[in-house]
């Protein structure tokens, strides 16, 4: 292995060595190298095995369109497969490994696929693996997947951090080459806010491959920095979205050996640009000839880039194939550097040639070599000894972004290329992306386009550069070259060769989109950036039509692959979503609560005490303490909504199915809110604090939904009503104090008469608390006990809860959590969203009488009485108890008639909620059962399919505790 | 016990404080006192001028939507007095405990905010406010100076917002402190 | 990925701040026949082209808006407050 690094030149820092490894081999390069250039400098041209045939491959490009040199970079959690070596900057101790080879890159068994290749042509798996069908999943697919493929992702946790951000600007310039720099400079000088993004590690684009333009480049970059342009190198703009928002990913620390934990590794930008200039340049087209994938063959622009940027010569003797003047320029540059050009092969009309290399008019017949190029046979001409080929088949403007919002590429006969519409709302195209050639012409065009873009938003700008002539005439795509039937690769990454495409055309898949699916041409990580144009030329010839008629497949985001990490941003692990804490969180934590996630909330679930060995023991104790003495439960997570306005009562009357217009001040009422289709949406109590002021509570789950619903009704349905709505959920710490001793305990801290006469069931009003604050007190009960809910300003929540616990110590008050609350409500037959499941109407829950028959209108009134919703055989709320008290019931079990088989036809309903009732000493359930309200006392079977158990049980009233409500009214 | 004075506990009482991330003082994050935050509600189009006196500080009145404002800072009167004076044109909902305010200042404060909100901060004048999302969280954003902002967030999310701001501020160097 | 909706109250905001409800449909009169209610609740056009929808600026001003847009091109023709032009 010999070094191909030139003794001088390049944009490298030769004073520093960067150690790295490839397939375990220790190598070194310099800052300024990409992984690809460093490998070339070390004489490592074999970089990969191809996808299907496992052919030896090297780099074709020096940029983001690279189809071949995909590698796995990094260690452990930072392992990243399918990284383009052309885009990966070298960093100290970088570890790279080749992919899709076994046992090694040099000795790859999979290369046998090449011998089987006549079976692996286009559509091979559609034809070959048709039969028997069961073999596809079990045999064929696993084998194909093992043999053909890209790198493997790691299953380890990614240790790095990602984030997203927004930017706003007058002008976004995409691409930092000549056109982009001129556009940014023009706009910045005019005082516009400018963002300039480029996918490369350095701004400059094609100017970086042209040392003569470096002084000018440095000047422009210095001025841009002074003018405050936001320069984003290493940033790929990957998509153009509605509202002129562009998505971009910045590789903030990908090039660093040890990323700092204080900054993201990648940052996803959403750039809202008033105008944008697309200056994304052009891709040089490879030539489609036999053996065009042998390592050592690359595009002429890639050759120039490695030569000038990293001072790497791709070979010792380079043959140059060119259709236009690009190869002539390269040949002259190489000879000026003292490099040997084996031959300059011109396929078109080139300029005059005075160099040393022989000029040959002809086309490539076949490249010869295995893991490295040996020679090039000119069709009907000489064989040229060469270890490198630089090819230039003309240029294809990079127009992907301009087509992301529906515009189609249009073939230009003048430019011999597909162009995007040059003027769209919010986006203009400049420079090589518009088909132009030459730095001077691109500088002039970029400047003119920026001025035009700013004029659209009323800003005047003087172009920073004047118009200049182009330096080349556009060349037509060549299509397939040479007569041999050997493989001529069109899409390197997918191993699609010319014959695959003619076969696709012959079999009727000549449409660009069909050919893509049939041959896989244009799929995978590079999406055909290099190959699509040649594929179109070949399909056009096969169909006897024009390239324009064949067209291209649709361009969609993303332009290049974007990591999931960047798209997720900070939303992962603990930060996947925010956590919502109750104002009583600290209080519960001090008491040792176990917490449960309820939506975003953390709710106290139960409060274990010393000696309790399982949650059931704690919950049973809490339930029994509430039934016997008293308990305090945090219900702050309930939605709380304040409703103001002179029409607030009328508004609520239309929102709830039961009446609210005549609710007296100082009283609470349970309400059922329906959807317009008649089914129950939510339930809760609403209290009238003043004539035009109500306080609504909703379930925890639907707090946001109800708020949105009320706003819709107030704003979109009845804007004539004077009603104003504010969410107050977080303002109040709300606690339930329940149990026969609740009144006497609460009376110790409330400075108001709480006697049954003064504060009866469903009373609701503001009360002063000892200690100098006001609270809102409601005599409502979810547990079925004598109970109150007390709301205090959230900051005082913990102090008030502490005070109540201290006040209730003589009675043995306990804290109880969401689990005990659930047991208490099931014992009382109160429903939650387990029962209000979107398929029940009030009558199903035994609340049919609540529905006002007199109100002319309320949400849900008009469809509530449809035939299907009044059927007496609808599922209705019942209680269920097991005949054997020792047998537990499980939620989700189905109810069957005694003796009926467990079939869908025999299904009579299911258990919506179950609990162990410590009060009754056995399992109880609520269920929705067909005609259930008329079947109390009937024996049924509860079928628990998960445990394959059939449990004899009895349907009962859903109220297991205090059916006469004596405790409630005590 | 119940006769002792009840004291309020700030939502960010236990929040992390100190310097985080890289050296430097790109951003300072401060928990603000929970002293007055009222939500005023009126019919859309109502002139909010009568509300002004009840707030105080650099941005006493923050529009959060048509006919809705946050009154911030301790101005004249009590809630009951204000309610009596402002009815029936305005209704007041006390949110002093419902929303928690933090301030964010320093040369990188705007860059940090851009990581969460799509509001174009270059167009937000001093004294101006916007109701928006910061990541997943709803916030009332106000500009209190050239490089100074205030965020009001639902109390239950205050700690999540605080931690998120510190995380996103590490690359600028961020100092977090209680009021 | 991203897109901006011009809220008449808040200015351009990303779609993440909004919640879409669906077609703008006048609520039938209280005494309308059940068939009309049935259609109101269950029947929807699914046009390729112009469409008026109720969007809620849930992460901003919390106003319900009428967004007139083209379902094929994504062009937003107008965004107005839902209460506007109503009694
Ligand atoms: Zn809005």
UniProtKB/TrEMBL annotation, chain A:
UniProt signal peptide: none
Superkingdom: Bacteria
SUPFAM superfamilies associated with the record: Aminomethyltransferase beta-barrel domain (SSF101790), FAD/NAD(P)-binding domain (SSF51905), Folate-binding domain (SSF103025)
Protein's UniProt keywords contain Oxidoreductase: yes
Keywords, in A-Z order: Oxidoreductase
Residue ranges constituting the GCVT N-terminal domain according to the UniProt record: 584-852
Domain Aminomethyltransferase C-terminal: 876-962
Keyword field contains 4Fe-4S: no
Residues covered by the SoxA A3 domain: 486-569
Example GO BP: tetrahydrofolate metabolic process
Molecular function terms from GO: sarcosine oxidase activity
InterPro entries tied to this protein: 2Fe-2S-bd_N, FAD/NAD-bd_sf, FAD/NAD-binding_dom, GcvT/YgfZ/DmdA, GcvT/YgfZ_C, GcvT_C, GCVT_N, Sarcosine_oxidase_asu
Domain FAD/NAD(P)-binding: 170-342
Family in the record: Belongs to the GcvT family.
PANTHER family: AMINOMETHYLTRANSFERASE, AMINOMETHYLTRANSFERASE, MITOCHONDRIAL
Identification of the protein by name: Sarcosine oxidase subunit alpha family protein
From TrEMBL, chain B:
InterPro entries, A to Z: SoxG, TrmE/GcvT-like
Pfam families documented for this protein: SoxG
Gene3D superfamilies to which the protein is assigned, alphabetical: Probable tRNA modification gtpase trme, domain 1 (3.30.1360.120)
Origin: domain of life: Bacteria
Name assigned to this protein: Sarcosine oxidase subunit gamma
From TrEMBL, chain C:
A biological-process GO annotation: tetrahydrofolate metabolic process
Tree of life domain: Bacteria
Membrane-crossing segments per the record: none
Pfam family, one: SoxD
Molecular-function GO terms, alphabetical: sarcosine oxidase activity
Protein name: Sarcosine oxidase subunit delta
Annotated source species: Frigidibacter albus
């Amino acid at each position: 292995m010999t070094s191909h690094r030139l003794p001088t030149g390049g944009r490298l820092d030769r004073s520093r060595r960067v150690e790295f490894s490839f397939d375990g081999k220790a190598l070194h390069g310099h800052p300024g190298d990409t992984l690809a250039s460093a490998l070339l400098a070390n004489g490592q041209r074999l970089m990969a095995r191809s996808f299907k045939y496992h052919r030896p491959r090297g780099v074709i490009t020096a940029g983001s369109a690279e189809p071949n040199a995909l590698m796995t970079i990094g260690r452990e959690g930072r392992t990243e497969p399918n990284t383009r070596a052309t885009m990966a900057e070298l960093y100290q101790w970088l570890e790279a490994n080749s992919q899709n080879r076994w046992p090694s890159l040099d000795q790859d068994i999979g290369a046998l696929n090449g011998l089987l290749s006549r079976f692996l042509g286009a559509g091979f798996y559609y034809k070959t693996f048709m039969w028997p069908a069961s073999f596809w999943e079990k045999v064929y697919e696993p084998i194909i997947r093992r043999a053909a493929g890209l790198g493997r992702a790691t299953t380890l946790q990614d240790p790095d951090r990602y984030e997203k951000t927004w930017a706003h600007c007058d002008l976004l310039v995409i691409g930092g080459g000549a056109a982009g720099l001129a556009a940014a400079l023009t706009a910045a000088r005019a005082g516009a806010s400018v963002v300039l993004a480029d996918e490369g590690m350095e701004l400059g684009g094609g100017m970086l491959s042209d040392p003569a333009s470096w002084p000018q480049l440095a000047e422009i970059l210095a001025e841009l920095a002074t003018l405050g342009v936001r320069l984003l190198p290493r940033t790929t703009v990957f998509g153009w979205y509605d509202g002129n928002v562009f998505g971009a990913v910045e590789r903030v620390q990908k090039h660093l050996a040890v990323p700092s934990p204080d900054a993201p590794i990648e940052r996803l930008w959403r750039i809202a640009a008033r105008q944008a200039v697309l200056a994304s340049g052009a891709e040089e087209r490879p030539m489609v000839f036999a053996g065009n994938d042998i390592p050592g063959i690359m595009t002429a622009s890639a050759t120039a880039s490695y030569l000038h940027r990293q001072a790497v010569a791709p070979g010792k003797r380079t043959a140059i194939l060119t259709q236009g003047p690009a190869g002539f320029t390269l040949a002259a540059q190489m000879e000026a550097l003292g490099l040997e050009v084996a031959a300059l092969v011109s396929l078109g009309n080139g300029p005059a040639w005075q160099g040393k290399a022989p000029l040959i008019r002809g086309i490539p017949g076949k490249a010869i070599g295995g893991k490295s190029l040996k020679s090039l046979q000119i069709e009907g001409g000489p064989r040229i000894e060469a270890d490198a080929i630089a090819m230039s088949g003309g240029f294809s403007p990079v127009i992907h972004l301009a087509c992301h919002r529906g515009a189609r590429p249009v073939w230009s006969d003048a430019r011999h290329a597909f162009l995007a519409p040059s003027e769209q709302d919010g986006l203009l195209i400049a420079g090589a992306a518009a088909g132009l050639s030459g730095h001077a012409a691109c500088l002039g065009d970029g400047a003119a386009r920026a001025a035009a873009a700013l004029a659209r938003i009323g800003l005047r700008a003087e172009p920073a550069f004047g118009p200049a002539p182009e330096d080349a005439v556009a060349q037509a795509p060549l299509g397939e070259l040479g007569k041999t039937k050997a493989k001529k690769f069109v899409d390197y990454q997918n191993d699609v060769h010319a014959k695959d495409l003619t076969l696709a055309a012959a079999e009727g898949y000549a449409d660009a989109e069909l050919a893509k699916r049939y041959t896989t041409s244009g799929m995978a990580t590079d999406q055909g950036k290099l190959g699509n144009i040649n594929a179109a030329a070949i399909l056009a010839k096969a169909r006897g039509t024009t390239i324009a008629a064949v067209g291209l497949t649709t361009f969609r985001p993303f332009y290049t692959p974007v990591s999931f990490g960047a798209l997720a941003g900070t939303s992962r692990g603990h930060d996947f979503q925010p956590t919502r804490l109750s104002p009583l969180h600290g209080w519960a934590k001090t008491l040792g609560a176990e917490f449960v996630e309820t939506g975003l909330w953390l709710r106290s679930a139960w409060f274990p005490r010393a000696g309790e060995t399982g949650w059931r023991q704690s919950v049973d104790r809490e339930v029994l303490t509430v039934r016997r003495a008293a308990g305090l439960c945090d219900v702050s997570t309930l939605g709380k909504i304040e409703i103001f306005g002179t029409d607030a009562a009328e508004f609520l009357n239309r929102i709830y199915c039961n009446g609210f217009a005549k609710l007296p001040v100082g009283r609470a009422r349970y309400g059922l809110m329906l959807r317009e289709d008649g089914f129950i949406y939510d339930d809760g109590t609403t209290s009238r604090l003043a004539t035009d002021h109500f306080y609504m509570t909703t379930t925890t789950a639907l707090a946001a939904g109800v708020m949105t619903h009320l706003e819709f009704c107030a704003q979109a349905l009845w804007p004539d009503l004077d009603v104003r709505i504010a969410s107050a959920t977080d303002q109040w710490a709300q606690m339930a104090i329940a149990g026969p001793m609740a009144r006497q305990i609460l009376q110790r801290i409330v400075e108001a008469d709480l006697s049954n006469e003064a504060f009866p069931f469903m009373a609701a009003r503001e009360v002063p608390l000892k200690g100098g604050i006001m609270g809102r007190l409601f005599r409502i009960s979810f547990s079925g006990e004598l109970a109150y809910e007390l709301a205090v300003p959230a900051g005082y929540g913990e102090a008030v809860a502490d005070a109540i616990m201290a006040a209730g110590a003589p009675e043995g008050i306990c804290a109880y959590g969401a689990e005990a609350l659930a047991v208490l409500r099931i014992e009382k037959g109160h429903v939650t969203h387990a029962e209000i499941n979107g398929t029940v109407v009030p009558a199903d829950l035994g609340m049919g009488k609540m529905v006002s028959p007199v109100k002319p209108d309320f949400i849900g009134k008009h469809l509530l009485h449809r035939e299907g919703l009044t059927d007496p055989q609808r599922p209705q709320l019942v209680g269920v108890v097991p005949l054997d008290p020792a047998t537990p019931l499980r939620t989700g079990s189905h109810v069957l008639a005694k003796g009926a088989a467990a079939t869908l036809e025999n299904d009579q309903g299911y258990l919506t909620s179950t609990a162990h009732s410590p009060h009754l000493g056995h399992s109880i359930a609520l269920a929705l059962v067909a005609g259930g309200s008329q079947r109390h006392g009937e024996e049924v079977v509860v079928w628990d399919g998960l445990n394959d158990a059939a449990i004899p049980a009895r349907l009962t009233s859903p109220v297991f505790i205090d059916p006469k409500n004596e405790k409630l009214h005590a | 016990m119940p006769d002792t004075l009840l004291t309020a506990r700030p939502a960010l009482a236990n929040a992390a404080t100190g310097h985080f991330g890289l050296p430097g003082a790109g951003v300072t994050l401060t928990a603000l006192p929970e002293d007055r935050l009222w939500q005023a509600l009126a019919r859309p189009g109502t002139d909010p001028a009568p509300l002004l006196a009840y707030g105080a500080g650099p941005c006493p009145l923050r529009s959060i939507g048509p006919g809705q404002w946050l009154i911030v800072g301790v101005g004249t009167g009590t809630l009951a007095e204000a309610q009596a004076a402002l009815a029936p044109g305005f209704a007041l909902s006390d949110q002093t405990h419902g929303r928690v305010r933090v301030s964010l200042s320093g040369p990188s404060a705007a860059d940090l905010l851009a990581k969460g909100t799509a509001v174009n901060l270059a167009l937000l004048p001093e004294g101006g406010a916007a109701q928006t999302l910061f990541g997943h969280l709803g916030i009332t954003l106000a500009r209190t100076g050239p490089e100074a902002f205030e965020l009001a967030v639902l109390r239950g999310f205050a700690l999540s917002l605080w931690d998120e701001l510190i995380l996103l501020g590490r690359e600028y160097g961020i100092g977090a402190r209680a009021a | 990925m991203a897109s901006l909706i011009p809220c008449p109250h808040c200015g351009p905001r990303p779609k993440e701040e909004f919640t879409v409800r669906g077609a703008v449909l006048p609520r039938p009169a209280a005494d309308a026949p059940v068939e009309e209610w049935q259609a109101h609740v269950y029947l929807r056009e699914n046009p390729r082209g112009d469409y008026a929808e109720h969007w809620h600026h849930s992460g901003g001003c919390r106003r319900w808006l009428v967004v007139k847009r083209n379902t094929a091109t994504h062009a937003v023709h107008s965004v107005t407050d839902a209460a506007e032009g109503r009694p």
